[in-house]
UniProtKB/TrEMBL annotation:
InterPro entries: Arg_Kinase, ATP-guanido_PTrfase, ATP-guanido_PTrfase_AS, ATP-guanido_PTrfase_cat, Gln_synth/guanido_kin_cat_dom. It comes from Guptibacillus hwajinpoensis. GO terms for biological process: phosphocreatine biosynthetic process. Keywords: Allosteric enzyme, ATP-binding, Kinase, Nucleotide-binding, Transferase. The gene is mcsB. This is Protein-arginine kinase. Appears to be allosterically activated by the binding of pArg-containing polypeptides to the pArg-binding pocket localized in the C-terminal domain of McsB. The lineage of its organism: Bacteria, Bacillati, Bacillota, Bacilli, Bacillales. SUPFAM superfamilies: Glutamine synthetase/guanido kinase. Belongs to the ATP:guanido phosphotransferase family. One of its GO terms (molecular function) is ATP binding.
Length: 365
């Protein structure tokens, strides 16, 4: 496995899978925050102490506990170019905090990119597991097994009364954040989401954009996650989140049915106008591209658009981010140059998708 593989391929292998409820749920994630008992926490540590942590990771984390994830590769942030780090953020493999605020950070990545273990971020370890579709329990079981594997090699900072000790008080306890990424265009179009979000917040959950706290919900993609980690078990957190997400899924499906029944021609017009923009634009900004991609994905899910795969939204939302565009161009680009490159890349990708679809139809005949 090479750094180039992680950087050059927009779609992580796990993104190609279609998990349960994949028409609405794009991914499920579970993350554990952990610190080492005999080390200063990263927010107060110096370079030498952080390098000691990385040294321990390099020497201890060799035998991978699960054959399904493949080998883990260690990438140190100071060895990466700014564009390479940005690409890893765009793929949800590392956080912005790891490259902007951490000192001597690193990440362990699995071959299929399901597993990402950030080192020396806000905490010594951020163990993240990502899976396609609505599979919270699957993500939790994988993260839990990795957590047990790491704990068999190192001593965690743990208090019998408070639980796992973390840099941020909001993570103390289980240290677990569980989240689900959902595509909710119908709830946005019908303006129902504005009423649903406050109700979700009252249940101890939070709704954010696709890149977490402080990010915008590009392409009508929202992340729902738990806020409380203390006083609840991991099972309680997973079950609470799962119950709320199931209700949101049902509301999104009902909103989609209502749009088809009551506003079909307007919906079709919106979908095909967006598809036309993507197929013909010579310059397009990221927000407009995300909006059009969301419309087209909705059209695919409702059977209005043929010849395009569901993964086109996920792939192109990542592929057209600033880091990827500049990585492919092999140079820094101005905002206008990025907008031109984005439009070109989308047109070429859609054309390739149509060609593959026609070939598949020909092979079947």
């Amino acid at each position: 496995m090479s750094l180039q593989r992680f950087i050059s391929e927009a779609v992580s292998p796990w993104m190609k899978d279609e998990g349960p409820d994949s028409d609405i749920v794009m991914s499920s994630r579970v993350r554990f925050a952990r610190n080492l008992k005999n080390y200063v926490f990263p927010i107060l540590s110096d370079r030498e102490q952080n390098l000691e942590v990385i040294k321990e990771v390099r020497s201890e984390f060799n035998d991978v506990p699960d054959d399904h994830i493949g080998e883990l590769e260690l990438l140190e942030m100071e060895d990466l170019k700014p564009i390479e780090k940005r690409v890893l953020v765009e793929k949800h493999l590392i956080s912005r905090n790891l490259i902007e605020q951490s000192k001597n950070g690193a990440v362990l990545l699995s071959e299929n990119e399901t597993v990402s273990i950030m080192v020396n971020e806000e905490d010594h370890f951020r163990i993240q597991c990502l899976v396609a579709g609505f599979e919270l329990k699957k993500a939790f079981n994988l993260a839990n097994s990795l957590d047990d594997w790491i704990e068999s090699k190192v001593d965690y900072a743990f208090d019998e009364r408070r639980g796992y000790l973390t840099s941020c008080p909001t993570n103390v306890g289980t240290g677990m954040r569980a989240s689900v990424m959902l595509h909710l265009p119908a709830l946005v179009l019908t303006q129902q989401l504005n009423h649903i979000i406050p109700a979700i917040n009252q249940l101890g959950l939070v709704v954010r954009g696709s890149y977490g706290e402080g990010s915008e919900a590009l392409g009508n993609i929202f992340q729902i996650s738990n806020q409380i980690t203390l006083g609840k078990t991991e099972t309680d957190i997973i079950e609470d989140l799962q119950g709320v997400v199931m209700q949101v899924i049902e509301k999104e499906r009902a909103a989609r049915r209502a749009l088809l029944d009551n506003s079909r021609i307007e919906l079709e017009d919106r979908v095909y106008r967006s598809l036309g923009i993507l197929e013909n634009s010579r310059i397009i900004q990221s927000k407009e591209a995300a909006k059009c991609l969301s419309d087209v994905r909705l059209g695919i899910d409702l059977g209005l658009v043929k010849g395009l795969s569901k993964s086109i939204l996920t792939e192109l939302l990542i592929l057209t981010q600033p880091g990827f565009l500049q990585q492919f161009a092999g140079a820094s680009l101005t905002p206008t140059e990025r907008d031109i490159k984005r439009a070109t890349l989308i047109r070429e990708r859609l054309e390739l998708e149509y060609q593959l679809s026609k070939k598949s139809e020909g092979d079947e005949q």
